[in-house]
Each structure stands twice: as C-alpha cells, then as structure tokens.
Amino acid sequence: MVDHEVDTAAGTAVVDADVVDRRSSASDGVLARVRNGLGELTGALRRVAEHVLSDPEAAARSTIVELAERSGTSPATITRFCRAMGFEGYADLRLGIASETGRARSAGWTVDIGREIQPSDPLGRVLDQIMAADTRAMHDTATLLDLAEVERAAVAIARANRVNIFGASGSALVGEEMQFSLHRIGVAAWAWNDVHEGLASAALLRSGDVALGISHTGQTRETIEMLAEAGSRGATTLALTGFPRSPLAELADIVLLTASQATTFRPDALSARHPQLVVLDLLYIAVAQRTHDRAHAAFRRTAQAVDGHKAAKGSVS
Question: Which InterPro entries does this UniProt record tie to the protein (predicted)?
C-alpha cells in the first residue's frame, strides 16, 4: 500500500498508509480521523484540518478550489491532506464528511461544542455541552478503536499470570478502576502510579505476563519508563492512548486508541477519561468472556465476600 506524506514540525514525514487505514475505513469517522491526526500536522495541512473541523458542513459543500482559498492553501495541499487522511481524493473526503454530518444532524448532535463556557451560562446549557462533547468523543473512539487489537489484548490478559497497570495522575485513577474490575473476575492485577514501585514490579515480570500503560498523550515519562521495563522483561505490552504515533504507542505490542473532545475547563486529557473507561470496560468484558467459568465463579465469591458489609434495610435512621 502507498505511504502518505504528512507535514510535521521537522518537515514532510511519510506516514504508513496501513496505519491510517486501520484507524477507520471508507466514509466512517472522517472527522474523528481528522481530530485524531490534528496533533501530528503542521503548516498548510494543519490549516486545512482546522478549517474542516471548524465548519464540516461548509467543507462538504465546497469545491477543492473553494476549500483551498478558505484555508489559505492550494488544491495540491488539499489533495495531500485527503491522502494523509486515507482517502483517494477530495471527492471521497467530501462524501465522507457529508455522510457524517448528516448522521450527526439526525441524531440531534447540534450543540456547539467549541463554544467557550461562560460564567453566566445556565447549568442546563453546560450540561448539554458536556453531554454533546462526551457523545462525540465516545462515537469517535468507537470509530478509531481496532477491535482486533482489543481481542489480542483480551487473549493476552486471559492467559496472563500477572497484569501490571501503569499510569500517572488521572490515568492512575483509570488504571485502579481496571485493576478492581479484573480482580473481581479472578485476574491477578496491580495498578502502579509511583514510578519507583512500578519499575520494581515491572522488573519482576516475564514472558506470559501483561503490562498496560495508560496515557492520553502517550508522552508521560514515568508511564513510558515502566512499560519499557516490562517489555524488556518479556511481558506483552499494551498502550491505551489517544495518539498512535506517540512514544508510548511506539513501544507497545498492542495499541488501544481513544478519542477526546475538549471543552472549557476540560482539556483533552480530562475529556478522554470517559472514553478510556469505556474501552477498558470493553476489554474487561472481553477477558470475562474468554474465562467465562472462572470469571463467573470469582465474581460470585467476591460478591459474597463483601455482602455482609451492606447496611440492612431500615437500619439507618
């Protein structure tokens, strides 16, 4: 398959077309692809991407010359942008955008997510904006997520003797949630957010074990170090990130992609939290499916173990 040229801060880079095509196919998730790739674009290609995202419906109605004029670029740049996004040409891009914006309108996704939340905004309006942003992020994640990679991750965890989960700050909270879920179905999992403890634990991993690194940017140094240590010991490494070409993704055996939709007071890393939880919930269920009898027995025992700590009805006055 032909590689695509993409403008980067260092110049023109060649992007593996297979990587682009794995993110999504045909006309599905065009805008998700553009949003997900925005951080990797600079210069003229980034201006095209930003213009498309600012008004997708106008982009779908524009000719290639009109879009070039409005974005301050050239028709040749538009063609390069289309190929970088995995399309054969501008006609395919327009069709994909038109199809996606039509589905969004029919689903009622009409809230202006990019609008700044003002101090005087009523909470009802803020709620609508948050819900719309999360809905878009979930939809984009479903588009970007490679289910074959989820399958591979689930098989690895189901067979693992031990699972280590690495993350810092907010990603650590997501990791702890995954640890709890896996424990409930009998999977030996530990979540680490301290780099010293995490490195020590990673050093004891071996072939047959699994390590999961969580970082939206894929650039958190501590998480990268812990996952790299785990990989050097022979563990199967997984990365949950929003950037497929990030350092964390590059060193992982299996990459699970998530999307985000930033709003006021909710930057990308924070808005990625719900999609991360959804993807890990899917992975958890996939593991439970593959260890069905063991998972059922463990879930029953763990539920019984805490049942005595529930307050009896009417005991609280």
Answer: Homeodomain-like_sf, HTH_RpiR, RpiR-like, RpiR-like_SIS, SIS_dom, SIS_dom_sf, WH-like_DNA-bd_sf
Distance between CA atoms of residues 220 and 231, nearest Å: 17
Residue 115 neighbours by CB under 8 Å, 6+ apart: 129
Ordered structural domains, the chain, with CATH: 4-108 (1.10.10.10), 144-305 (3.40.50.10490)
Per-residue pLDDT reduced to its tens digit, 244-302: 889 999 999 999 999 877 666 766 667 788 999 999 999 999 999 999 999 999 999 99
Dihedral class, residue 189 (left if φ above 0, else alpha if ψ from -120 to 50, else beta): beta
pTM for the whole structure: 0.70
3-state secondary structure of 161: coil
Q: Which residues pair with 239 in a beta bridge?
A: 213, 255
How many angstroms separate the CA atoms of 243 and 259, rounded?
9
Question: Which uninterrupted H or E stretch holds 163?
Answer: strand 163-167
Give the separation between CA 276 and CA 259, rounded to whole angstroms.
8
Tokens of 219: 């650039």
Mean of all residue pLDDT scores within the chain? 83
Residue whose entry in the numeric block shows the structure tokens 């779908």: 60
